[in-house]
Design brief:
This protein is α/β, with parallel strands linked by helices and 514 residues long. The chain contains 17 helices and 11 strands. Helix 1 packs antiparallel against helix 6. Belongs to the N(4)/N(6)-methyltransferase family.
């Protein structure tokens, strides 16, 4: 076994070989349900062995160290019973599916933090009487993952975490439309972490955290800035995810990156998990999120909200974009900032049209209150569940006056600053750095950025699309089909409400009661 740390490329190749070894037997989107927990077990086992060896040296023998750990599990990060250690797993030749399922349950029993994280997978699961993944495939996975140690002295948490994220991206590429539920492209997450630029002691929140990528990139940005300085107050991370399997991935991802994060499961819009003792929403310094775009919620979600989140207006049922944004805003401290990546239509729908439009009215309230700091238009075809471009909206509850940001909005158009990739485009490091410097220095750059006043936004009927102010190749702004559909649905929703009101008036005039 190699004595040097595994490099990122070797580790990525190892993990991808593991995925390829079961290709064809199960659908690609399901790879992660079996491979990620196994990788996690391997990491836990190797780290446990490292800690056991250290304690053996301290107390004079491995037998004594074993007995002490059995009595006091807090001596190690995670306690693994003997059957759950990789040495035992690799020797198992029959009934692997049942054995591994018992292993993850045993690990969860011994480690409360891992309950509902590692024990949700059933390696012995069947569909129509057939095993989802065979013992032969599990044996291949165990053999491949057993080639290298993944302990404390073999691979840095950051490198292992990056390889883990690489595997998530690979799963996303094979998952088609469902991928956006758990994965935000790495470079988009990095850009958002640069925009938020976390400071010591801050609390960071993602209300729809998926596999945890945005929180992790914020953590890594903090580490890049301050290194491993233990004298600084650490960041505290909070996230909520509705899907059980994705929630488990987020928890595993945080553990693998060696970061402390409070990840909760549940529907944030219906039942936000982080509350104060009086039942009000907990507030955070920074919020980072990529909610599902144009999600549909019933009006009752907004009208019956007990947390006073939707103070700027109720979004239409056709798109919850401004519902999510209002939840995040309500979760910010008085000097808090947030960055959310959302459908491009969120910054333009309804502008320039006659009649009422609820999204424009909510956007108007945010602009009039001088809360929107920046809007960044991304290139097309970055995300795995859509070819649409997306925008990052930065909201600041306390814009710095000394930098003349009051009553101004910075609009950045990087729609053509991308590299071609397969199967998706991506943002190069140079683009991320360029956007960060424009935002940090609050400057205009020909063909890239424009600073507008609130008055200018008002003259454009609260259209904040960067392409309206910073055009590329003299192209006119064209409404994408997806946005046109959402606008049509909202108009239809308003028409139905108007019809209902009209009939109420007619029935009242006729003296009818229903």
């Amino acid at each position: 076994m190699p004595k040097n740390l595994l490099d990122i490329k070797l580790l990525e190749n190892l993990l991808w070989e593991a995925a390829c070894s079961i290709r064809g037997e199960i659908d690609a989107p399901k790879y992660k349900d079996y491979i990620l927990p196994l990788i996690f077990i391997k990491r836990l086992s190797d780290v446990f062995d490292d800690e056991l060896n250290t304690l053996s040296e301290k107390f004079g023998s491995s037998e004594k160290a074993e007995k002490l750990i059995e009595i006091d599990h807090s001596l190690v990060r995670f306690y693994l019973p003997k059957k759950a250690r990789w040495e035992s797993i690799s020797k198992q030749t029959t009934g692997l599916g049942e054995y591994l399922t018992d292993v993850v349950r045993a690990i969860a029993r011994e480690n409360q933090k891992l309950q509902g994280v590692i024990d949700i997978v059933d390696f012995n699961a069947t569909t129509a009487g057939q095993r989802v993944i065979s013992d032969e495939s599990l044996k291949r996975l165990i053999e491949i993952l057993g080639r290298y140690r993944l302990g404390l002295k073999d691979v840095e948490p950051d490198i292992f975490g990056r390889a883990y994220e690489y595997l998530l991206r690979k799963f996303a590429e094979g998952s088609g439309q469902s991928a956006g539920e758990f994965y935000t492209p790495k470079e988009v997450a990095i850009l958002m972490s640069y925009l938020l630029d976390p400071e010591p002691g801050q609390e960071v929140y993602d209300p729809c955290c998926g596999s945890g990528g945005l929180l992790i990139k914020t953590f890594l940005r903090f580490r890049d800035k301050y290194g491993h300085d233990t004298t600084l107050a650490p960041l505290k991370f909070y996230g909520q995810e509705i899907l059980a399997s994705t929630f488990a991935m987020a928890r595993m991802n945080a553990f693998i990156h060696d970061m402390e994060a409070d990840i909760a499961i549940g529907n944030t819009m219906e039942r936000p998990a982080f509350l104060n003792s009086d039942g009000s929403l907990k507030k955070f310094d920074l919020v980072t999120a990529n909610p599902m775009w144009n999600q549909k919620f019933k009006q009752s979600t907004y009208e019956n909200d007990p947390y006073n989140r939707f103070i700027f207006g109720y979004p239409p049922e056709s798109s919850a974009d401004w519902g999510w944004i209002q939840h995040m805003y309500a979760s910010l401290k008085d000097n808090g900032r947030m960055a959310v990546v959302i459908d491009t239509g969120a910054v333009s729908r309804g502008s320039g049209t006659s009649g009422k439009n609820r999204e424009r009215d909510i956007r108007k309230a945010f602009v009039d209150s001088d809360l929107i700091e920046a809007v960044i238009l991304l290139p097309e075809n970055l995300f795995y569940n859509t070819t649409a471009a997306g925008v990052i909206i930065v909201i600041n509850k306390n814009k710095p006056q000394n930098e003349n940001r009051k009553s101004q909005i910075l609009l950045i158009n990087i729609s053509d600053l991308y590299e071609k990739g397969r199967p998706k485009n991506y943002l190069p490091d140079s683009t991320i750095q360029r956007v960060y410097e424009i935002y940090k220095d609050w400057k205009e750059e020909e063909g890239i950025s424009k600073i507008i006043t609130i008055d200018e936004a008002i003259r454009n009927d609260y259209n904040l699309s960067p392409s309206r102010y910073v055009s590329k190749n003299n192209q006119d702004e064209v409404l994408p089909l997806e946005e046109a559909i959402v606008e049509f649905e909202e108009a239809e929703e308003e028409r139905k409400k108007a019809d209902e009101k009209l009939w109420e008036i007619i029935r009242s005039l006729r003296g009818e009661s229903g």
